[in-house]
Amino acid sequence: MSYEQIDRYVLSLIERSDPQHTAWNIEKIRQGKPADWNYIDGCMMTALLSLSEITGDSRYGAFAESFIDAFVEEDGSIRTYHPEKHTLDDINEGRVLFDLYHKTHKEKYRKAAHVLAQALKAQPRTEEGSFWHKAIYPNQVWLDGIYMAQPFCALYEKTFGTCDFTDIAHQIRVVAGHMRDGKTGLYYHGYDASRKAFWCDPQTGLSSSFWLRAIGWFSVALADLAEILPQGREREEICGVYVQLMEDLLKFSDAESGMYWQVVDKGGEAGNYLESSGSAMIAYAMLKGARLSVLPASFAQAGKKTFDGIMNKYMSFQGDEMNLEGICLVAGLGPEDNRRRDGTYAYYISEPVVKNDAKGVAPFILCYTEVRRIAD
């Protein structure tokens, strides 16, 4: 498959999308919910801006800007954003505000970033200082949340703040201290500091499985922080966590495809499958780490093998239409009234597998941009 085919695939998605109806937010499509400010579309906008940069094709960036403009008002308020929900997911889309501000110098993007930064100041925290994932998940830290909030925090500090990255490093430190399994080097999906959630071990507070996309989100966050943060103690500490995770993950890649399993340490077990979104995230982190010289050059080869594996296994054609398949639609832990989401192996393999959802498409595009950066 050529670069041109991938470009055409992405263009076909944006040609069928607008801020109210996207071709990639499968959750919204299935639920019949109206468009809002959310992390799924935020991931896609981040990917489109990166693709615009690497290809020089302004159509990707123009779409992302118009998409964000449908939600960000001139006074910086964000339509459909509800800070009182205290959900880290809703911070993620704010990442694109910095690129748009640098590009256009429009004050509304700076003001909107400030709105989100102020919301984070009010975000509930555990006793150790970690953000709660959401208000409905008290005292819970999820790997996903590191990606949703910490790159935004770093970009805000670097662009508009005092360049104090100590809190970011602390939150990574807490996650690495509690959620990393010493035997495998893998990270559990969630940690309840209160040890009260139905899904957690009452002694450790940890969930019971290693879900690929959670580890993928964490991997992408570490890679992006390595690029955003300046040289110094905080970056050095975060890069140490990053390098260790990439080294440990390599042991769990599928030998033939280079991909990773939905439940990472249960490769080949009944119901488990090679999943495309988390695999793309890890490939992106490996490729980017090698480019930044945080990881040895050999990780670029490992990341490219995974990217090629996704292409070979999950890029499909139906007439003139291309599809990216093998994407876990969604997975989570609880809340209390949803005990099906219990963090077990049986739960993670039971969630729907879909095609063309942005949780897989956006990481795939980001991975593709890293492949292009190396090749170009």
Notes on the protein architecture:
With 376 residues, the chain is mainly alpha-helical. It has a single domain, classed as Glycosyltransferase. The protein is 51% helix and 5% strand. The chain is built from 14 helices and six strands. It has helices at residues 3-15, 26-31, 39-55, 58-69, 96-104, 107-121, 143-159, 166-179, 212-228, 233-250, 276-291, 298-314, 345-348, 358-375, and strands at residues 140-142, 190-192, 315-318, 321-324, 327-328, 353-354. The strands form three sheets. The protein has a two-stranded antiparallel ribbon with strand order 1-2. It has a two-stranded antiparallel ribbon with strand order 3-4. The chain has a two-stranded antiparallel ribbon with strand order 5-6. β3 and β4 form a beta hairpin. α7 (143-159) packs antiparallel against α8 (166-179) and α9 (212-228) runs parallel beside α11 (276-291). It is globular, with a radius of gyration of 19 Å. The two termini are 17 Å apart. The mean pLDDT is 97.
Topology:
Layout: H1 3-15, H2 26-31, H3 39-55, H4 58-69, H5 96-104, H6 107-121, E1 140-142, H7 143-159, H8 166-179, E2 190-192, H9 212-228, H10 233-250, H11 276-291, H12 298-314, E3 315-318, E4 321-324, E5 327-328, H13 345-348, E6 353-354, H14 358-375
Antiparallel strand pairs: 1-2, 3-4, 5-6
Helix pairs in contact: 3-4, 3-14, 5-6, 6-7, 7-8, 7-9, 8-10, 9-10, 9-11, 11-12, 11-14, 12-14
